[in-house]
Amino acid sequence: MTDRNFKSSKIRIGDISISYYFKPALTPSPVKTIIFIHGFPFNKNTWRPQLESLADDVTGIAIDVRGHGNTTSSHGFFSIDVFAKDLVAFIKKMELGKVVLCGVSMGGYIALRTAELISENINGLILSDTHAKADDNKGKQKRFDSIQAILQHGRRPFAIGFVENILHPNTIQLRNDVVELIKSSIRRNSINSICATQLALASRTDTTASLSNIKVPVIVIRGAEDNVTPKAYMEELHQAITGSEYMEFEDCGHLPNLEAPEKFNSVMNTFLKNLHVE
Prior knowledge:
Layout lengths: L6 E7 L2 E8 L8 E6 L10 H6 L4 E6 L16 H14 L5 E6 L1 H12 L4 E7 L8 H17 L1 H12 L2 H6 L1 H13 L2 H12 L15 E6 L7 H10 L4 E5 L6 H4 L1 H13 L5
Parallel strand pairs: 3-4, 3-5, 5-6, 6-7, 7-8
Antiparallel strand pairs: 1-2, 2-4
Helix pairs in contact: 2-3, 4-5, 4-8, 5-7
């Protein structure tokens, strides 16, 4: 594996400008392409450890979802469907052909919806701490309460509480770099975008019925101490996707790619190495 830098770029897609990191493969074809999709309310920086670890025959791309990081928000009305259609337009405009999608949490919801829309362009899926279900009434109300709290108290208390909820205690105690990355990611997003994304998450559709249509290799990864994504939901996701592989990372919360990057990268790179490309 050769160390190589990746650059930040922007591309106009419809009504927004998408910001993304691009790390080109160094070898001739066949080249594998993986697109990383961050969770809420983060940005593409959360995927830097994965981009840095990719093998020479892999092109890596990490995007800022609409309204997050340096990607513009346009009208400001978000949905998981809108995010997925942005990604579809990005894949087509970049002429990427078949891709692997790697998404954590909200990024997993976007990946699953994208796979519904353009299954012919999907080579594989890495789904971390995510599931296929829509929010129930309790989940919706929790998001509405969060919106009210953000509007009343701002981003700082939201960021503090968010970190405590999503990260394993060991990560909080020993990985100040991860804690600060999460806090800074939240601060970089506007209150409007954070609230609009909460509404998008609350209104997302259930993609369970389409899981049986997924015929590509899939890995389902869960932080063993994830307080956000129920284990039962992730096991259902795994069982509904024929041939998928399920694994849990010990001493991890909701973000295994940041809390156990070496293990995540090893699993990811083995998956990519064994992936057949046409």
